[in-house]
Amino acid sequence: MSRSPDSSFSPPLLDVLSNTASSNSTPPTTVADSDSLHSDTSKHDVITVAIDPDSPPAAEQTDAVDENAPPEQEQTLQQDEPQERLDTPGRARRARGPPPVYNLAKLAGTDGHGKRRAKGDIVSNRRRRTIGRATMIDQESHADESSDPKSPKAARATIDALNLQSPRRSGSQPTRRQSEGSPRSLRSSSRQAASPSSKAPPAGVRTRRSVGKIDNTKVPLELRRLQDTKEFAHSDEKPVIYTVWSNGKYVDPNEPQEPPARKKAKVATDDEEPENDKESPEPITNTKKRRVKKYLDKGLYAGQDPPADITKGLTVAEKKKLAEMPELLPSGRVNKTMPSPMFTGLRMLIAGRDFKLPWNVCNPLPPGQPKPDEWKKMTKNRFIGDSKEIWRKSDLFQDMTRCECKPEDGCGESCLNRSMFYECDDRNCNIGRAHCTNRAFADLMARRAKGGKYHVGVEVIKTSDRGYGVRSNRCFKPHQIIMEYAGEIITEEECERRMNEVYKDNDCYYLMSFEQNMIIDATTGSIARFVNHSCNPNCKMVKWVVAGQPRMALFAGDKPIMTGDELTYDYNFDPFSAKNVQSCLCGEPNCRGILGPRTREQKSKPELQKTVKNAVKAGKRKLQEMIGSEPASSNKPKRPRITSTKEALATVGLQMAKGTATAIKKTASSVASNAKKAVRGAKAPAQRRTNASTVLKKTVANRVVKAYGTKGTTKKQISRSTSTVTAKDKGVKAVKKTTVKKTTAKGTTTKTKTTATKSSSVAKVTKARGLKRPIAPARMTAAEKKRKEELDRQYEITVAHPD
Ligand SMILES: C[S@@+](CC[C@H](N)C(=O)[O-])C[C@H]1O[C@@H](n2cnc3c(N)ncnc32)[C@H](O)[C@@H]1O
């Protein structure tokens, strides 16, 4: 290849090239860079020269150059170049050697792109990219850069200036372009300027001494650091080898050139390294250090460095707590087994909080479960037919007063409302929503309003042997409300009609005795109707009064309920007749075998008695506090318990001696009658009186409802069975009063001893409820009337079922 006069580059000055390149730690393309400034050829087409160590000496090459150079070039050199340059041995001669010239545009396949300049596309002012560590050179800013001492150009110029001590550098070495007044002269001007002021050492001597003469203050710091390097002194130890790179690839000049490939270049993998690379003795590219992949051992945050200061961002309290937990302080070891989340991990550990998923991800019901059809869902009770007119609101619920709880009580076990199965609300609660825990139905509403399976919490399933059932879709705490038993509220007459006409061919009835001789028919109703029976249930059906209205709901039992558990309650099924007896398939160890009623032993007597006792106690205490018959002081010593009339008399005698005439112990009934009198007579605050009478009506009974068979039964039978259940299973013990009156000079002292017995009057009333014709209210005493109302509210669940 020969250099053409209009070639896109000028012959590089290799000496300059190598020095500048080394001082800048850039690939040896500096001269070519400057060449590219004046060239249309892209930067990667720059030609560099490989000097073969075996090639003839530089002097010979120089000669060859001189011989082959065109006459005008030779002339220029002779004119501009000082004589000593020609005489300089060694490196300078080699630098002057004629480099082989390659048309890299052709090699790179870009020679066919045409001459854009010819088409008016001015590219001379454009920035061009160089190979390797690119040097962006703007032609116009070149002069400015040189003037800036911090700029790379200026640094390079400084080096060049330092090299003036070299004999071969003592004079400017104008290239052909410089001689033509090209912009390159800007760069060499510094040398020219430096030239006269510098004292040139003997030829060929470039020592540190000579370098040391330079004013170091003008040399940039980074160059001063390099002063004792060979590169700085421009003494090469090894032969300088130049390679040609194009488009990031090594170009072997000896290889025949292939036509330009239009296809996208295949990315070379490690296995198929380009042969050129192998042949290349020493590629002068900046070989990137291969990055080592990091694999995380375990966990989301494994492999991360622990923070330098783990207490950063912690509060003072957290820092204090952390100091007490040395196990959390950094041990220096990488924790691979249990990395904690990045930001809150330490906080969680300090607070001792367990990790918790934001919601329950477990959905136990596989898709495609058969769902009951022919079932109209209804989540609220609805009055049907005459029931609406007949239904009367009890005045009990209208003048309800607030409970006496304090915020710290939270309307717990001692809450008057709770003990009477009244749900607290804004009208009857003393402590408000924030503290009150006696709002089960309100909680249920709020939970369901959120929507979604988890909040609804239950789902219908198909059991293997008992038809449909209900399963929990979440966990429930003990005694937590699960779902309401809702349906159509119908009269007894309507119930009878439906059974005889509508449900006569049905296998299951979903009927439950409710309130005021009404019945809930959940044939159209809530999911609760699908809850099956178990002799060892995990739930119970309880009736509550909510905002003055009775409502039934399924509550968790004494144990928590886990996700996926089937929900059951004890129907306490009264088959009424032998033909209605159904065998139980609950499979519990204590299974009674039939869906029959619980025996006396199974009725958990102690539990029932305890509940009654506690409730009566709480009621009495509250009443006494309200009425003021006894000071409400907890510190007051307990009065002796009177167990017999004799004892009572003795106590009374003692008290009489002390001149007191107060009641020692009053039953709920006696307090109530006093309260009533007080309401009528003394006009005490209305709320207190109302509460007192309400408490009395609420002699606590077992509210767990029961089911019984009704298939083929008549209205009379239904009523009778209901009353039987009520009479037998309520477990309500009426209060027998023994009043002892003792008249003394100071007055009359009345003592009442209470004995819990089966109340004949209550039994009578209860039995009467089983009659077709209700007892006329006029024939009932006031106490009986109240009692009846209470019993009305304690109707049982009726689940009618055939054989
Ligand atoms: C109110 S329904 C319950 C839902 C019913 N499994 C269904 O598919 O609609 C009551 C009826 O379910 C059946 N059942 C409920 N619990 C049972 C049990 N433990 N053993 C046998 N049958 C049961 C009885 O047929 C009973 O009459």
Protein described:
This protein is of the alpha+beta class and 803 residues long. It folds into four domains: 14-279, no CATH class; 316-351, no CATH class; 376-391 and 439-569, SET domain (Beta-clip-like), CATH 2.170.270; 572-632 and 644-656 and 665-709 and 719-803, no CATH class. The chain contains 30 helices and 17 strands. 32% of the residues lie in helices and 10% in strands. The radius of gyration is 53 Å and the shape is elongated. The model is unreliable at 1-93, 129-150, 161-212, 268-278, 630-778 and 795-803 (pLDDT under 50). The strands form seven sheets. It has a four-stranded mixed β-sheet. It has a three-stranded antiparallel β-sheet with strand order 7-14-13, covered by helices on one side. It has a two-stranded antiparallel ribbon with strand order 1-2.
Strand content: 5-15%
Task: Tally the beta strands.
Answer: 17
**What do the pLDDT scores average to?**
61
Shape: elongated
Low-confidence stretches: 1-93, 129-150, 161-212, 268-278, 630-778, 795-803
Major sheet size, sense and barrel closure = 4 strands, mixed
Instruction: Tell me the radius of gyration.
Output: 53 Å
Q: What is the CA-CA span between the terminal residues? A: 112 Å
The structural class is alpha+beta
Number of discrete domains: 4
What is the number of helices? 30
Oligomeric state:
single chain
Spatial order of the strands forming the largest sheet = 4-8-10-9
Question: Helix fraction?
Answer: 25-40%
* List of distinct ligands in this structure: S-adenosylmethionine
Keywords: Chromosome, Methyltransferase, Nucleus, S-adenosyl-L-methionine, Transferase
Pfam families: AWS, SET
InterPro entries: AWS_dom, Post-SET_dom, SET2_Histone-Lys_MeTrsfase, SET_dom, SET_dom_sf
Biased composition (Polar residues): 163-176
